[in-house]
Amino acid sequence: TMKTCGECHDTEFIVSHSYHSDLGLRDYAASAETWNASDGLFGEFDPIGYRYLSAKGDERLDLTTPDWLKTYGWRVPGGGPAVTSRGGQPLVSLKPDAENPEASAYDPETGKFKAWDWSKSGDIEMNCFLCHTANPNNAARIASIERGEFGWANTATLVGMGIVERSSPDADGFAWNADAFDENGELKDEFVQLQDPTNKNCAACHGEIHEDPIAPLMLDACDATQTQTATTGQVIASQKISESGLNLSGKAGLDRAWDIHAERALKCTDCHYSLNNPSHSLDEKAANPEHLTYDPRKLEIGEYLQMPDHNFARGVSAQFGIAPELKSTMRRCESCHDTNKSHANWLPYNDRHMQVVACETCHVPRIVAPAYSSVDWTVVRLDGSARAECRGIVETLQGNVSTTTDLVTGYQPVLMQRTDV
After folding, report:
1. What's 367's DSSP letter?
2. pLDDT tens profile 32-65
3. 18 and 311 in contact (C-beta within 8 Å)?
4. Rounded (10°) angle between helices 65-72 and 138-146
5. Which of 129, 140, 126 is nearest to 192 (CA)?
6. Is 352 inside a domain boundary?
7. CB 55 within 8 A of CB 30
8. For residue 280, what pLDDT is reported?
9. Closest residue by Cα to residue 327 from 335, 316, 317
10. Residue 11 and residue 115 in one domain
């Protein structure tokens, strides 16, 4: 994708600064004091899966870089630590070494670490297809990563689009569909399925997003592959809660949408937009001199398309500490809603309320879906998983939680004092 998409877009620029690609690599610093070696997914201890990225010199290794990719690669769009070592060298340049946590992998058959050959496995370039095609084959991509076939992961994303197919279920590699290309070897127009990222693309890594207006929403309680939903209960869906397939307490009375903004047809990118997108330039008005009502010094659309900023506007989250310099760049409620028109006629001291009370305090008083309350790795089940408990659901069988048979009650979020909202 770096070469193909790089024909029109500056892919080197894109991958060099995007925190979705970097995932904490640039800030990686192993420490004897903590299991966290960075503020991103690469190097941060995972309290849900109870895994951490091993550093050179660790007395006991957990995840080497190849093992980390096999374990968390489903959340890695490529580039960053999937291409570059912690020291800045290309991974494919590292020599296989069973003693090096960047060039070795655990062998379950022997119980020991063996040398990993990056020149054979390949690395994972930033995967443009994952976000910029309508139906990326994420299952095939993940399967390729879990097999350690890193170099094929991006190609696997195209399986099912008529461009490429797996040679055979048991064979390595993929085969191009010759009918998808013209006599010059270029992809025919009807096979070009590029688009702006949609909610569905974001859902591949972030959480439950349901866009089907007919099929009832279903979800697994505390599913660790739906990270945002499993840890917070957040569900992005325009469907009425009462029309879902969940066994909800008081379901008949829940006649509102799971997400009001999804119901109003907003997309993730309406708030989490590219920071140099010229269509959002007015959002940066606060940075302009006071005497300017309009600043024409913005990118032309052609300049933006060549070098689109892939650092997206983000909020402030206790869960994610990566790219702290970009915190609070995302639109918040007051960016779109004027409380002087919607609240001031009935709420006393409106301005003061808005200064000290977050909108979510009143407008998200209860979470309907369940979420983790605890994950206890001191109690390990027979299948090797930890004992986990979910809040917002009445479990009838410990360890086998079902949102269709168990009663889903939801929960009330804890209100916390904070200033970084």
Report:
1. B
2. 888 899 989 999 999 999 999 999 988 889 999 9
3. yes
4. 150
5. 129
6. no
7. yes
8. 78
9. 316
10. yes
The whole-angstrom separation of Cα 405 and Cα 159 is: 35
CB atoms closer than 10 angstroms to residue 105: 22
Q: Which of 168, 191, 214 is the C-terminal boundary of a domain?
A: 191
Which residue in 228, 229, 206 sits closest to 219, CA to CA? 229
pLDDT number for residue 286: 53
Decide if 244 is inside a domain. no
Q: Is the per-residue pLDDT at 326 higher than 80?
A: yes
Q: How far apart are the first and last CA of the chain?
A: 37
Under a CB-based contact definition with an 8 Å cutoff, are residues 18 and 79 in contact? yes
Clarify whether residues 106 and 138 are in a common domain: no
Sign, Cα dihedral of 261, 264, 268, 271:
negative
Which pLDDT belongs to residue 293? 64
What's the number of domains the chain is made of? 2
Lowest mean pLDDT of 5-14, 223-232, 280-289, name the range.
Answer: 280-289
Q: To 10 degrees, the CA torsion angle through 342, 347, 350, 355?
A: -100
Band of pLDDT at residue 193, cut at 50, 70 and 90: confident
Q: How many Cα atoms are found within 13 Å in the side-chain-facing hemisphere of 270?
A: 11
Question: Distance between CA atoms of 27 and 36, rounded to whole angstroms?
Answer: 11
Domain identity same for 112 and 141: no
DSSP string across 395-418? -SSTT---TTTSEE--BPPPP---
Tell which of 89, 121, 153 closes a domain: 121
Q: Would strands 236-237 and 209-210 be described as parallel, antiparallel, or unpaired?
A: parallel
Of the two residues 66 and 402, the one the predictor is more confident about is: 66
CA distance 216 to 235: 13
Q: What percent of the chain has pLDDT over 90?
A: 67
**C-alpha to C-alpha distance for 54 and 30, rounded to whole angstroms:** 9
- Residues 69, 144 within the same domain: no
137 and 79 within one domain: no
Are 21 and 111 contained in the same domain? yes
| Amino acid, single-letter form, for residue 329 | T
User: Whats the size of the chain, residue-wise?
Assistant: 421
H helices of 137-211, in order, are 138-146, 153-156, 199-206
